[in-house]
Structures are given as C-alpha cells and as structure tokens.
Design a protein that fits this description.
Radius of gyration: 15 Å
Number of strands: 8
Helix content: 25-40%
Shape: globular
Oligomer: single chain
Strand content: 25-35%
Number of helices: 4
Length: about 180
C-alpha cells in the first residue's frame, strides 16, 4: 500500500482546549476535550443531526448505528473535542488513527450552529489537542464542491494532496 502524502513543514501550534468564546450569533460556546463521559450527549447530538447534512455516509442515522460508530470514534487512541452551548453538544471533531501513521479528521456541527465560527474553533481545538497528544500527521477527505470547508482547512494549514472523483484529500503535519 502506498503511503499518504503529507506536507514537509509542520504548521504553527494551535490552542488546546478548553476554550470559551462568543460565536457569530452571540452564543457562548465552549470547546473542550471529550471522552467517554460525553457518549450519551454525543448520541443525542447525532440523533438531532440533519440527514441532509451527512457527507460520505456519516454520521449514521439510526440510534444503534450511531452508538456503534461512536464506539469506534471514542477509542483510547483517537482524539476528540466537543463544542457545547446551553448544556447540549452542538459540535464534535475527531482524529482517528489510520492503518499507517496518520490520523483521519472528521468534524460535525449541527445545522443551526453552522456558519457562526464554531467549526473553526472546534478544528483549532482538535488540532491543538492533537499536538498536545503527540499526533504528527492528519488527513481528511472533503467533497470538492464544499468550498467553505476547503477554505477553512486551507486557512488551518491543510494542503491538497489527492483528488478522487468527487472527493479531495487534504493533509497537514502538526509536528
């Protein structure tokens, strides 16, 4: 299997959670590292996730499938951060180790919280937590038509590494 391509130079450091900020809608949002304690809150968040906002088949729709999927995402080797507002989770970002030496990134923000800067803070916190935990290489795939996400990933230092039909692969080196 051919290895994934990563940039030669690492990006600057990111702030590690916790962080509390005011989003673009004036809401107070907290980003913090996540663990098993957030499992039920994450199930609830993903049950509220608009199926139209799913990309690449995730997150799953049915509760049992959500629970199975979260069991894999919340492994002790993964890095998870969540965003909360008014006592509920509204965003989740995760770095999942792959079968080589990198981590795949996935990020989810509830529809009614998108476009307010939460995804940016969530990703910065995730990458900062990843740096804190010694993660070196991160990659992701994004649908090529998703210009706002691609712009955000590039702002964070991700570089385009591969294009598959409707997906674009991007990668960053954290250290």
């Amino acid at each position: 299997m051919t290895g994934r391509t990563y940039p030669e130079e690492p990006v600057d450091s990111f702030p590690a959670p916790p962080e509390t900020f005011t989003d673009g809608e004036g809401r107070t949002v907290t980003v913090e590292a996540s663990g098993l304690a957030d499992f039920e809150a994450l199930v609830e968040m993903y049950e509220a996730f608009d199926p139209a906002d799913r990309a690449q088949g995730i997150p799953p729709i049915q509760e049992a499938a959500i629970r199975d999927w979260l069991d894999a995402l919340l492994s002790e080797d993964s890095v998870n951060v969540v965003a909360g507002h008014d006592g509920r989770l509204v965003g989740h970002a995760v770095l999942v180790p792959d079968d080589q030496d990198g981590y795949e990134l996935a990020v989810f923000v509830l529809n009614e919280y998108q476009g307010a800067g939460i995804g940016t803070h969530l990703l910065e916190g995730l990458l900062g937590q990843g740096q804190r935990e010694g993660v070196e290489k991160v990659w992701l795939t994004v649908e090529r038509w998703n210009a706002p996400a691609i712009t955000l990933y590039e702002k964070l230092g991700f570089e385009r590494t591969d294009v598959e039909s409707f997906e674009l692969e991007m990668a960053v080196r954290l250290s």
